[in-house]
Amino acid sequence: MNASRRAVLALIATATAFGGRAFAQALEVTESTVKAAFLYKFAGYIDWPDVALEPAGGAFVIGVMGNDEVLAELGRIQPGRSVAGRALAVRKVRDLDSLAGVQMLFVGRPESARLPVVVRAAQRQGILVVSETERGLEAGSVINFVVLDNRVGFDVSLDSAERSGHRVSSRMLAVARRVVPKAG
Amino acid sequence: MNKSSIGRALAGALLAAAPLAQSAILLAQASDLAELSLEQLASITVTTASRRAEPLVDAPASIYVITAEDIRRSGANSIPELLRLAPNLHVARADNTQYAISARGFNNVLANKMLVLIDGRTVYTPLFSGVFWEAQDTFLEDIDRIEVISGPAATLWGANGVNGVINIITRSSARTQGALLAGVGGTRESGIGGRFGGAAFADGTYRAYAKYTDRDHFNLTSGAPIRDASRMLATGLRTDWERAAETITLQGDGYSGDVDQAPAARSISGGNLLGRWTRSLEAGSGLQLQAYYDRTNRDHPGTFKEALDTFDVELQHTIGSLPGHRLIWGAGYRQAFLPADRNLRWGNVFAQDQIALLERLELTLGLKLETNIYTHTEYLPNARLAWHLSPEHLAWAAYSRAVRAPSRIDRDVFFPGAPPYLLVSNTTFDSEIARIAEIGYRALVTPALSLSATAFHHDYPNLRSVGLSPAGPVFANGIEGRVQGVEAWGIYQVTQVWRLTGGLVAMHERLRVAPGQVDFGGLPSLGNDPNHIALLRSAWDITPRHQLDLALRHAGQLKNPVVPAYTVLDARFGWRVTEGLELSLSVQNAFDRDYSEWGAPNNRAMLERAVLLKAVLKL
């Protein structure tokens, strides 16, 4: 990371320390930008099931369905970054036939109606599903983005995580707004 | 990162120190944010409004969408004023509360070829098929979007959508949580409104709103006051339950108000209750069932009194599982009880199939059969061809037959109330038919520039005329004609902080009494339309907290009665004082031009410069 990026980071970090208000005046941050950054960060706080990381040596793929803005922002994150020792890759997912090789799948709001179907297909392949709709967790996603007071937060379902074979670190749960416990 | 990025970072740091500096704004990219912790990410304030040009609507029709951001930046305090944002509508204010609003001609304060819906509820009156705009209101901050379709959309929407559809959609209560207060005060009107949203039982959400507006009277061009001051109270409640594949909405509104007129103020009141259930099924299929009851009361002392009850139920089923097809079918039934014991009934069944012909070519075929008590069965077919040249470019063509079924005034009216009548009732007035051909092009030329252009040809073989019968003058179908034109608009995001929207409609109307027919005054009452209207809007974020919005509106001359062409400038300055408080100052007709938008020379309202201060407080 070079000096200029550090300068931006310092600015962001300082501003967020002051509640984000001064920051909001200096920087224009879209919801999609923050969501993309979150998606990348989440990957580091999840234990991935073996089935999800097969075959060994491939890239770590975040698939995006129905949200081209987040897809574009992830594309900007991707160069030179890695997850779980694998190079990060980003891919647009159009239908359920093209899920092979994807580790994490973000389902945008326009595709929310299909969420239950997507979740069923994803769980079988050990893919972690992230959504951005009301009742997303109830539809079976593991992580659901919630925008409240112009801030992006997220809810986590440990129940769904278990179904798809993922473990979510307690550090991530500490930041989550709401955590749905395991069933039973 | 390169040197310019360092410069941008420094500029950002300086801006943070000097919040009012009117300089470039730094756009943070996800690559900058990826190094932050989860906690830091969760604390960042984001801009929720999309700053990019509106995405291309994939529909093969002439649709303009007024967004919530447009509404917030309009400075408007009523639904008709919001509709000025749509480049494909001609909006003419006749006085304090009355408007003439139509697409593609036939404009009139009784304009009768538009279908207007608020959250799925039809608001045009079966009395004359037009809209009493003075009775339509809601808490504007809760509107999600307004879809304005110019041209026919009768197959899916209904019989009155001949020249256009205005579809006002409010947000789900899940997206309007918390308290919001809005107050306005200005030279023409003052008012206050508020909304509160919270959690309802069983995982649901609700919101309630109330809005009161007091509007001052207008003046004639001679300076004499018009008796048209008004007072309106609107309230409503909405609850939503959103589950993964299912949403249930229950909502209702109530309103009451009065509008000054000679000899005594007319009073209006009413209410509605609507329930909607939607369920998404597998593979893009879905089911929707909606029912509502609407009550409208209207009392014009001495001339006219109406109490209208409407029941409406509609079912719609979308089937997405057939390869290469997307089929929608449905049925509806509406019943309206009008004063003087008239009981109107409409039934309909429709089906529409979207067929993938080739990879990029889509054909939509639709047919609606609609029944009414006057002309019995009407058929409304439509065919649309969509050619996706690329994901960003769409060329389309459509042919439709649309129908305006008789309203009560067309068939049942005696005027005046006692002989000698200027108009007697009839049993022969037939539905007005329109055959409409359109070709259009929509494109997202670059991520910052979207365009839409449509050419249209409307053919009307049997418009309403005033003919003769043994008993006296009657409505007949003796006028024929056509309307041809083009409508085009574009949205250009010039920079991150500056957006331009421009639109133009140019059309030519040719109407005449059909051979072998007579007409005693029907022709001028069909509408009074400009040959062209144009709109240019600029939305500029001077700083993230300061906004300047300008709108230049132009309408060509109206012919009968003559209303001169005009060009006026509206301006708005918005200031977000804190995260929760926004103040704005709007000026309509900023240069105080002497102008009118509607009416005969000696009897029309002058639209003087109007200033409005608005405060929106989020608690």
Overview of the molecule:
The complex is a heterodimer of chains A (184) and B (619). With 184 residues, chain A is of the alpha/beta class. Chain A is built from 7 helices and 11 strands. The longest helix of chain A is centred in the first third of the chain and has 15 residues. Chain A is globular and about 35 Å long. The N and C termini of chain A lie far apart (46 Å). About 8% of the residues of chain A have low confidence. Chain B is mainly beta and 619 residues long. Chain B has a single domain, classed as TonB-dependent receptor, beta-barrel domain (Maltoporin, Chain A). Chain B contains 7 helices and 34 strands. Chain B has a 22-stranded antiparallel barrel. A 5-stranded mixed beta sheet of chain B has the order 2-7-8-5-6. Chain B has a two-stranded antiparallel ribbon with strand order 3-4. In chain B, strand 21 and strand 22 form a beta hairpin. The longest helix of chain B has 15 residues. Chain B is globular and about 85 Å long. Classes of the chains: A alpha/beta (184), B mainly beta (619). At the A-B interface, helix 1, helix 2, strand 1, helix 3 and helix 4 of A face helix 1, strand 1, helix 2 and helix 3 of B.
Features:
heterodimer; A: 184 residues; alpha/beta; eight-stranded mixed β-sheet; two-stranded antiparallel sheet; 7 helices; 36% helix; B: 619 residues; mainly beta; Maltoporin, Chain A; 22-stranded antiparallel barrel; five-stranded mixed β-sheet; globular; disordered N terminus
